[in-house]
């Protein structure tokens, strides 16, 4: 009797694990998940809601020098893929449950990454600006005036 119960538990566990792996694998394939591991900006338009941002980036001044990853993920290996995984989770959840806002907005963590990348790419310019700040501890907010630079406006 005990052997039968343990076999049922093992069979149930293996079935649920197989179902989880199968559904997860299909979802990853269907959502073109591997494309998000690349640096190809076309991956950002796998979902239809990013098409306006992609089109705006193509006409922006940053098109020739920066991809989506250049601005939106940290440049270190671990930070890059951690951020991609975290954003992938949030995007998957939002699209699965239809909770994304009509106007796409960056989370604060994403905003901080973009600001850090602005400062890193424009370091020489930023040093000059920082020298004239009244409070050197205050973070420079590039996005306050240049919010649309990477996506077409304010070129």
TrEMBL record:
UniProt xrefs under InterPro entries: Cytochrome_c-type_ET (IPR051174), Multihaem_cyt_sf (IPR036280), NapC/NirT/NrfH (IPR024717), NapC/NirT_cyt_c_N (IPR005126), NapC/NirT_cytc_sf (IPR038266), NrfH (IPR017571)
The protein's required cofactors: heme
Note describing how the cofactor binds: Binds 4 heme groups per subunit.
Entry binding sites for heme 2: 68-69, 71-72, 151
Recorded superkingdom: Bacteria
Keywords tagged on the record: Cell membrane, Electron transport, Heme, Iron, Membrane, Metal-binding, Transmembrane, Transmembrane helix, Transport
GO cellular component, one term: plasma membrane
Keyword Cell membrane part of the UniProt annotation: yes
Residues binding heme 4, per UniProt: 142, 145-146
GO molecular function: electron transfer activity; heme binding; metal ion binding
Coiled coil: none
Localization (cell): Cell membrane
Keyword Cell membrane in annotation: yes
Post-translation changes: Binds 4 heme groups per subunit.
Residues binding heme 3: 63, 118, 121-122
Bilayer topology term: Single-pass membrane protein
GO biological process, any: denitrification pathway
Domain NapC/NirT cytochrome c N-terminal per the UniProt entry, residue ranges: 10-152
Binding site for a menaquinol: 80
Family: Belongs to the NapC/NirT/NrfH family.
Protein name (record): Cytochrome c-type protein
Protein's organism: Oscillochloris trichoides DG-6
């Amino acid at each position: 009797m005990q052997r039968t119960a343990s076999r049922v538990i093992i069979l149930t566990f293996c079935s649920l694990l197989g179902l989880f792996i199968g559904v997860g694998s299909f979802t990853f394939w269907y959502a073109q998940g591997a494309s998000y591991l690349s640096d190809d900006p076309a991956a950002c338009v796998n979902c239809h809601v990013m098409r306006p941002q992609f089109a705006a980036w193509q006409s922006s001044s940053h098109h020739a020098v920066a991809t989506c990853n250049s601005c939106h993920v940290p440049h270190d290996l671990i930070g890059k893929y951690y951020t991609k995984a975290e954003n992938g989770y949030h995007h998957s959840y939002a699209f699965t449950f239809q909770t994304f806002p009509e106007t796409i907005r960056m989370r604060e963590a994403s905003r901080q990454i973009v600001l850090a990348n602005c400062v890193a790419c424009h370091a020489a310019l930023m040093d000059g600006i920082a020298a004239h700040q009244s409070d050197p501890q205050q973070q420079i907010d590039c996005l306050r005036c240049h919010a649309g630079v990477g996506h077409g406006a304010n070129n």
